[in-house]
Amino acid sequence: MNQECLIEKEMYQQAIDFIPKRYPTGWGGVAIIHSEDGQYFTSVPIDTANSSVILCIEVGAMCEAHKYNVRVTHCLCVVRDDENSPFKVLSPCGICQERLRFWGTDVKVGVTTLDNSLKFVTLNELQPYHWTDAYPAEELEHFSK
C-alpha cells in the first residue's frame, strides 16, 4: 500500500473514531486535514441558533493548518445521520474548494461516491474548468503559499 493510501485510510479511521466521541447520539460530522509535515488537524461545525453564521465542517482544520503555516495535502469530511447510520464522505462544497486551493490544485479531497467507497481526487480533477485558468499563474501567485 502506498503512502497516499495510508494517509487516506488513517484520515478516515480518525474520523470514524472521533464522531461517536464528540456526538454520542444524533447527527455527527468531522473534517480531517493532513499537512505536508505529517500533522492531522480536525474540526467540527459550530452549532448556533443563527444558521446564517454556520461555517463548513472543514473551516476550523483549515484555519489550524494556516495558523501553523503548513501546506495542506489532503482534506476529508465524514458525517453520519445518527448513531445507527453508516458513515459517509461529503465532497467539499464550492466555497471549501476555493479555500483549499490556497495550498494548490494538487490538494487531494475525499469525495462522495455512489457505493460509499473511500475515494480522493485532486482539486484539479474536481474542478477541471476552474475560473483561475483565465489568468496567468503569475497573477495569482500572491494569493497562495
UniProtKB/TrEMBL annotation:
Gene Ontology MF terms: catalytic activity
Entry-linked InterPro entries: Cytidine_deaminase-like
Listed NCBIfam families: PRK08298.1
Protein name per UniProt: Cytidine deaminase
